[in-house]
Amino acid sequence: MAVFRNRRLLSTNSNRKDNYLKAEEAEIPDVKLPSAEKLLVLGGNGFVGTHICREALERGLTVSSLSRSGRPSLQDSWADNVVWHQGDLLSPDSMKHALTGVNSVISCVGGFGSNSHMYKINGTANINAVRAAVEQGVKRFVYISAADFGLINYILRGYYAGKRATEKELTTKLPYGGVILRPGFIHGTRRVGQMKLPLSIIGAPLEMILQHAKLLTQIPLIGSLFIPPVGVTSVAKVAVTAATDSAFPPGIVDVYSILQHSQRKST
Ligand SMILES: NC(=O)c1ccc[n+]([C@@H]2O[C@H](COP(=O)([O-])OP(=O)(O)OC[C@H]3O[C@@H](n4cnc5c(N)ncnc54)[C@H](OP(=O)(O)O)[C@@H]3O)[C@@H](O)[C@H]2O)c1
User: Which ranges carry the NAD(P)-binding domain (predicted)?
Assistant: First the structure.
């Protein structure tokens, strides 16, 4: 018998002594075969989206992305292994073709601007995506939302109203397969044109310190300033696990849970 685990082939053929695995030594076979999974990343050409595409490819998934501009300009070889669709979530019909045969969706679509624009991109566009995905029979949908930031919620009210409206739509339409990640600031290397911004120089040390200081977030008015930043590779890892592992619990995953899940071994 042959089983795959973490993309390694283990032989359990008892006729071959050299390959024989005693029951107590053998790892429990992983019944998931991730290569059969087809994942669509909405906004796969953005900061978080590119990291999610890479993480999913490394796990052997078939990966496609949809965004208004399609394939990003980066030359990295992994990008050749993603199917890049162009489409605008504000015109839901333009995403239908990208959903064919898709098992799970991760949405990284979001943005800033006027309050009405922020509501459209973080809310309307993603609500359209949830509805189209559910219509096409998608069973798992992960939405990259955002942690509450006290007073900032009021200043960016269109952004947060949009985020929460999408969360409500997702938990209503996909109560058992909708996962909402709520990171605070996400650090990593962000590309802006040809430039690379190393956000981890500040983000990583703050993450180290603040992940153990949850109590500080309860200080009135300024508590949310102590929400730990989280690395983009951690967000990507948890998002892909949430999208492909049916045992991953549905609902809201806060910053601290993102950090915890990211430290677990990937399947
Ligand atoms: N970065 C952070 O620190 C942070 C923190 C907390 C939460 N988040 C959330 O995480 C998500 C990803 O953030 P990010 O920093 O990776 O953002 P980003 O780099 O700006 O990526 C946004 C993506 O959305 C796509 N997009 C925008 N409008 C679209 C539309 N109408 N239809 C289809 N695609 C559209 C963009 O591609 P096109 O322009 O080609 O369409 C891009 O791929 C967002 O929802 C954001 O709110 C980010």
Answer: 43-187
Nearest-CA residue for ligand 1 atom 19 is: 46
- Decide if 98 is inside a domain: yes
Token pair listed for 211: 């992940």
CATH code of the domain containing 168: 3.40.50.720
For residue 153, is it within any domain? yes
Which structural domain, as residue segments, surrounds residue 78?
A: 37-185+232-262
- Whole-angstrom distance, CA of residue 30 vs CA of residue 3: 8
Q: Is residue 197 part of a domain?
A: no
Centre of ligand 1 from the C-alpha of residue 81, in Å: 21
Q: Which residues pair with 4 in a beta bridge?
A: 9
- The answer to pTM > 0.90 is no
Q: What gap in Å lies between CA 82 and CA 77, rounded to an integer?
A: 10
Number of domains comprising the chain: 1
Q: Is the CB of 109 under 6 A from ligand 1?
A: yes
What is the per-residue pLDDT for 151?
Answer: 83
pLDDT band with cut points at 50, 70 and 90 for residue 34: very low
Percent of the chain with pLDDT over 70: 85
